[in-house]
Write a structure and sequence with these properties.
Blueprint (H helix, E strand, L loop, with lengths): L1 H16 L4 H26 L4 H8 L3 H10 L12
């Protein structure tokens, strides 16, 4: 519990120094660590060591979101066309 209180006090100190609220700081940290996990998984995806289904389970996102991330980062991937 002491580690959590240290983190909380650090966030409060940072919030006092900057013009951000605690929630904005936590949201920025969340996006930072999410992007970090995405980049690690992209390296494995490029090498062919990890499948899309495994990555989406790890990141808890939908496959569409993952393919949107691939498009955004200009990573080559196989595109599937829906046939009606």
């Amino acid at each position: 519990m002491s580690n959590l209180s240290k983190i909380k006090s650090e966030i409060e100190n940072y919030a006092n120094e900057s013009n951000l609220t605690e929630l904005q700081i936590v949201k920025k940290l969340e996006t930072h660590y999410f992007n970090k996990k995405v980049n690690e998984n992209l390296k494995l995806y490029k090498k062919g060591k990890k499948k899309v289904s495994d990555i989406t389970k790890d990141l808890k996102i939908s496959p569409r979101k993952f393919y949107a991330i691939l498009e955004k980062k200009n990573v080559v991937h196989k595109k599937y066309n829906k046939k009606e």
